[in-house]
Design a protein that fits this description.
Strand content: 15-25%
Number of helices: 6
Structural class: alpha+beta
Largest sheet: 5 strands, antiparallel
Number of strands: 8
Shape: elongated
Length: 230
């Protein structure tokens, strides 16, 4: 017997199927990452097509059977302001790619969902570096790659090759100032809306996000394609 359910979430990936269908990869609040079937969505005039755009937060109505859930309806909860800058578009795509890389099917995270929801509400008005720093920090946590950060907030060095945090006076590693270390910890413990309230950290977030991105790519062996848009 088929059953119906409603989920809220974002499209993080799409795959063409046949002549008119598409498989949508979603990240939902209720069930995390799942795949659903959208039948006929590529036909001219398909009503659902406009509601499956990237960055839209959508309420999905699904029919669940033995195969993939089938999308039978969708209503947009929130659509971000028109993304006119390449920087904002690049960040949005990078957030979706990072979501796909950080979660396996059926893995979920209430924090991550709330972060995406907040990010796409703030993407045109707030410092992009802070949003990206927060996402990278949480992705490292999700993947179990975060090094043991010192309890103090003095400057340290982190070795990219093995993730070890060494004393500031030690040789090797890349410098993380006390303010950068404080920001990293805030990104791991606070909701994104609270991190964005921290002021005067634009330079720290720029340098820290660059380091975290290289650290992430080194230890996953994956190059994030979306970050190359700019």
């Amino acid at each position: 017997m088929h059953k119906h359910k409603t989920l809220t979430g974002f499209v993080i990936g799409r795959q063409q199927l046949g002549e008119a269908d598409r498989i949508l990869r979603l990240f939902t609040r209720e069930e995390g990452r799942i795949d659903v079937m959208a039948r006929g969505i590529r036909r001219a005039g398909a009503k659902l097509a406009s509601r499956t755009e990237p960055f839209y937060e959508v309420e999905w109505r699904l029919v669940v059977g033995k195969q993939l859930p089938i999308d039978t309806g969708a209503e947009v909860i929130h659509a971000p302001d028109r993304l006119t800058s390449l920087e904002a578009l690049s960040l949005g795509q990078a957030l979706l790619e990072l979501t796909e890389r950080s979660f396996h099917t059926d893995e979920s995270s209430e924090y991550w969902y709330n972060m995406l929801s907040e990010a796409f509400r703030q993407i045109t008005t707030n410092p992009h570096g802070v949003i990206w720093t927060a996402a990278l920090a949480r992705s490292l946590d999700q993947l179990g790659l975060t090094p043991d950060l010192p309890s103090s907030e003095t400057s340290v060095r982190v070795k990219l090759s093995d993730g070890r945090v060494v004393e500031y006076t030690s040789e090797g590693g890349e410098e993380l100032t006390s303010r950068m270390l404080k920001l990293w910890k805030a990104c791991r413990s606070l909701a994104l809306k609270d991190v964005l309230r921290i002021t005067d950290l634009d330079e720290e977030s720029r340098v820290l996000s660059s380091f975290l991105e290289r650290f992430w790519q080194y230890h996953t062996g994956i190059e994030l394609k979306a970050t190359k848009l700019t």
